[in-house]
Amino acid sequence: MDVLQSGRNIDKKSSSIESLVQNLTYRRSGIGQMVRKSGLFASLVDMGDRYITLATDGVGTKILIAEQLGIWDTIGIDCIAMNVNDTICVNAQPVSFVDYVAIDRPDEEVTGKIGVGLNRGAELSDMEIVGGEIAVLPEIVKGLDLSGTCMGMVDKDRIITGDACRKGDLIVSLKSSGIHSNGLTLARKIVESAGMKMTDSAPGLNQSVGKELLTPTEIYVKQVLGITSKHEVHGLVDITGGGLRNILRMAKGCRYVIDDPVKPQRIFELLVELGNVDTREAYQTFNMGMGFTIIAPEEDAENIAKENPNAQVVGRVEEGSGVLYAPENILYDHY
After folding, report:
1. Alpha carbon distance 192, 198 (integer Å)
2. Which phi and psi angles does 47 have, rounded to 5°?
3. I want to staple 320 with a disulfide (CB 3.0 to 4.6 A). Which of 46, 49, 196, 255 is the partner?
4. Is 125 in contact with 159 (CB distance < 8 Å)?
5. Given the DSSP bridges, would you call strands 144-155 and 235-238 parallel, antiparallel or unpaired?
6. Pairwise CA distance, residues 220 & 85, whole Å
């Protein structure tokens, strides 16, 4: 399968982002100004003794699977998760959330079920949904789109940016619940090209392919903030779009070596088999079972893995550059 034709052309997306950002030149001074640091998963706004954080994201084409199956009460969890999992990457506590639904026609049943998922995601994040918008846009939107924005808070002396990552640190992975909310365009294309329907079963799956892909994104808020309150942590990485390449946001001058990866769930094995997806593409499109990554000193990392059943030491930090998937000697050297 030609992965670029699936719409998952990550490099093209990155260049599109750059073309937009280069025109955002206005800068505020004084209280409320943005912290000038690139590579963060959530933006930092200086508010004196603490930072507030802002992160925005959506559910993506996972919505199309929800539509095909008629299951709408889980994608709200994904919307929350995609935002709060980025927010905690700077050790911020998610506090408030606003959602945005763009829809072609009002549908009380669908929006009500989306609200069920949003509320569940907020509960799992200990965060309040303080507002939102439903925009009816029949000339622009076919179906619906769901996104949102999260505000968080962190004291300045508790911030984690990845700058402290260094040689000798270990890399701990927190396992994913499945595909989360990235790589769904490629996943859908693979299923369709194999002549399968989302309601079909497949060997090794306990539910239909569609329901497996619709499994809500894991929310790591309480777990990660609990870990950072007990252990020294140098870097936090949400493994979303870009896969292992997200780790490149951590300190430069380091090579992040993944030499004992989490065994991927069956859904990833199935997608790789059906789509003939090579390992390089698989680990930069999907999370492959590794939903969130913690980089910490050796002793702390080992204790984190012992204390958390879903955690595993998957690698180490050494001098150099890039992210190395050691089992097949694949180096990711640009984000």
Report:
1. 9
2. -125, 30
3. 255
4. no
5. unpaired
6. 6
2's enclosing H/E stretch is none
175 residue type, one letter: K
Q: How far apart are CA 236 and CA 165, in angstroms?
A: 10
User: Rounded to whole angstroms, how far apart are CA atoms 164 and 328?
Assistant: 28
* pLDDT on residue 5: 53
Here the tokens at position 48 are 């004196």
For residue 193 the two structure tokens come to 């090209």
In the chain, where do the E strands start and end? 43-46, 50-58, 93-103, 128-136, 144-155, 170-175, 235-238, 254-258, 290-296, 311-319, 323-325, 330-332
196-235 per-position pLDDT tens digit: 999 999 999 999 999 999 999 999 999 999 999 999 999 9
The string over 170-194, giving b where at least 16 C-beta atoms fall within 10 Å of a residue's C-beta and e elsewhere, is bbbbbbbbbbbbbbbbbbbbbbeeb
CA pair distance 127, 329, nearest whole angstrom: 41
Separation between Cα atoms, residue 217 and residue 291, nearest integer Å: 9
Triad 204, 215, 129: Cα angle to 5°: 170
The CA distance from 154 to 168, in Å, is 27
| CA–CA gap between residue 190 and residue 196 (Å, rounded) | 9
Question: Which two tokens mark 76?
Answer: 């709200």
Does pTM surpass 0.85? Answer: yes
* Among the listed residues 234, 258, 253, the one whose alpha carbon sits nearest the alpha carbon of residue 323: 258
